[in-house]
Amino acid sequence: MTHFEVNEHFRWAQNGGRQPGRVKVWFRRRFFDEEPVMFVPEDGFGYNPLSIGDRLTERSQKGHVYEVVRKLGYGDSSSTWLVRSDGEPRFLALKVMIVNASLRNFDNEDHELRSTFVVTKKNPKHPGYAHCLPMRDFTVCTSYHGLHMALAFDVMASGVYSLQKTLPYKVFTPRNARRIVKQVLLALQYMHEECGLVHTDLRLSNIMVPVTASDTRINKYLAQNPAKTYKPRVDLKTKKLITTVKSQPLPHFGLNPSLNNLSIKLCDYGKAIPIQKIDHRNQDQCSHILPILRAPEIILGHPWSTPVDIWSVGFLVFKLLTDNVLYPLHALITADRYKLAHMVNYMGAFPQRFLAKCTMRNSYFDPEGNPTFPNINISPLKEHVTFILGAKGVSTKEARSVAAFMERCLALDPAARPSATELLRHEWLCDI
Known about the structure:
Layout: H1 3-17, H2 20-31, E1 55-56, E2 66-74, E3 78-85, E4 91-97, H3 99-106, H4 112-121, E5 135-143, E6 146-153, E7 156-159, H5 160-165, H6 174-194, E8 197-198, E9 207-210, H7 215-224, E10 233-234, E11 241-242, E12 265-266, E13 273-274, H8 296-300, H9 307-322, H10 329-332, H11 336-347, H12 352-355, H13 361-364, H14 381-391, H15 396-409, H16 420-423
Antiparallel strand pairs: 1-2, 2-3, 3-4, 4-6, 5-6, 7-9, 8-13, 9-12, 10-11
Helix pairs in contact: 6-9, 9-15, 14-15
InterPro entries: CLK_kinases, Kinase-like_dom_sf, Prot_kinase_dom, Protein_kinase_ATP_BS, Tyr_kinase_AS
Pfam families: Pkinase (PF00069)
GO molecular function, one term: protein serine/threonine kinase activity
């Protein structure tokens, strides 16, 4: 398949042949080892094809030069690299944006750079600041694709999502789940009340564990576990060989087996939106939210704000304790009406005052406010959560407390959802 054919097939897939999220995975597996470094900005990409040993000679905002020593990971709009600095701290994580994302930030179409600056500078004395990831430095680097915005942060190990996969039965104990949730709420309290930002992308992979090891220990680990690359591939356009560096996150240095010293940071402000810039009529502002995490106000076209993050916290709690999602599989891959049906069965009918403000009301409800989506015969949320947690060995008292906490987070009307500050006072978190 030629470069043109790949691009044309990709566009076809984006325009209805395949779901956008699935086409990214399909293309990466078939044509690329990891991020599609061969695709150009005109295709909506433009990754910086960095290699181990590369030096970013453009002076950063703080006057530093960085040397690439390892690849930590990648996402839809960036790749993240462990770099060695000529200043302090010696090691940093450099998030290098694709050309398209860089230009959108330079043109103020995206908010990542501005949101990160706000999180970094607003109020370092706030308790939630310790659970956010402030920016250490900023630079712009170049590749044959163009300009790349690059943000430097403290080094993180793999996220809570990866950590959970290593645990017995892939679940956190209730106490460790409470520890994570409380720290997430402190971060949200800071973002919502001090920074005026809605995160909008609260998922386990965006909750990271800091690396607390010394430079000496990191150097020793790197020497014993050198960076790896994939077999070179031919660029379909330039016919040149491209060698992709393998993602190798650092381990959780110093984390006790009991996780009683677990500390987290809420990261990735690429989708964070200033509260005053929210336009609920603009679907592009919330199109990135995972379907499973979309609050009812997003689906129904109701004005939205910080409560969408609180909704995500409710799902986060269940995932941490069960490694499952609240909706069955078919609800994840079908229409929003099935998600709404589950919401009604879990939480009861939507308040009419809420529906009156929903622009998509007539798509899911008749003129009398009765749902036109099918009824699903499942237990109310409290019974469902209590039963599932009980089956996993959680005590009845603990399970009921968890269910009560989730009920507060998943109130159908966003006006009825508590703030992060109010949730921090909930009894389920009182002994953490």
